[in-house]
Design a protein that fits this description.
Pathway: Carbohydrate acid metabolism; D-gluconate degradation. This protein has a single domain, classed as Rossmann fold (3-Layer(aba) Sandwich). It has eight helices and five strands. By secondary structure, the protein is an alpha/beta fold. A five-stranded parallel sheet has the order 2-3-1-4-5, sandwiched between helices. Bound molecules: adenosine-5'-diphosphate (ADP) and 6-phosphogluconic acid (6PG).
Length: about 210
């Protein structure tokens, strides 16, 4: 199954919302801002400088899962901005529960293939200055380190992994969105899963095709 849902993931300030809005426009999808679905408790906790834990995040991830599930079932394109920092969290987004023994059965694979994860990973110095410049947001720059230490992923989980180019420049949101949209439109017209034509090198949107 080609992707129906794209989750733009990564730590705070990496550009999830900026890329997500533009990708949704180009790919003709609905955009869902994950932060809009946090509980008041979670927002207040982060605003007070305390990072969320697994228990705080679970209801939020389940709420996002129900939107993702509906999009997959109805094949309604959806782009979601969500930190999705751990493999366990991404599993909840796709399947609506934590990892379990049943996870490798064929029906689960189809659902997994319908959801593409795109990791945005600017340099830490870039992230820090973006967060320090971002006025009026509930998320304090002081929490960036906890986000970076919580983030875990394997290349095979990702549809694309965006990093700075060889000159250390992170691409603008428009360029990332453009490349993602081309890869997604290519993957749906060819009927295949994952991105096609990526070089696999750093800085390449859609560089990492999902394994079959
Ligand atoms: N690719 C980019 N290059 C430079 N600045 C960016 C880029 N993407 C986002 N920004 C800026 O970084 C800040 C955080 O972006 P945002 O999209 O809100 O990130 P997130 O949703 O991941 O927290 C904003 O001020 C935004 O304008
Ligand atoms: O899982 C979490 O700890 C939060 O979701 C966190 O990752 C998110 O980043 C904040 O909500 C800040 O919002 P932005 O990511 O949009 O800056």
């Amino acid at each position: 199954m080609s992707p129906v849902v794209v989750v733009i993931m990564g730590v705070s300030g990496c550009g999830k919302s900026s890329v997500g809005v533009q990708l949704a426009r180009l790919w003709n999808a609905t955009f869902l801002e994950g932060d809009a679905m946090h509980t008041g408790h979670n927002l207040a906790k982060m605003a007070s400088g305390v990072p969320l834990n697994d228990d705080d995040r679970l209801p939020w991830l389940l709420a996002l899962h129900s939107r993702i599930r509906r999009a997959v079932d109805f094949r309604d394109r959806l782009v979601v901005a969500c930190s999705a920092l751990k493999p366990e969290y991404r599993h909840v987004l796709i399947h609506g529960r934590m990892l379990s023994d049943e996870d490798d059965v064929a029906s689960e694979t189809e659902r997994r293939d319908a959801v593409a994860f795109v990791l945005l990973a600017p340099d830490v110095s870039d992230l820090r200055s973006r967060l320090e410049r971002r006025a009026g947001h509930f998320f304090p720059a002081s929490l960036l380190d906890t986000q970076l230490s919580t983030l875990r992923f394997e290349a095979a989980e990702l549809f694309a992994h965006e990093v700075p180019d060889e000159d250390g420049v992170f691409p603008p949101p428009e360029r990332i969105a453009d490349r993602l949209a081309s890869a997604l439109l290519g993957s749906s017209s060819s009927g295949g899963s994952g991105a096609s034509g990526g070089s696999g090198g750093p800085g390449t949107a859609a560089a990492t095709a999902r394994p079959p």
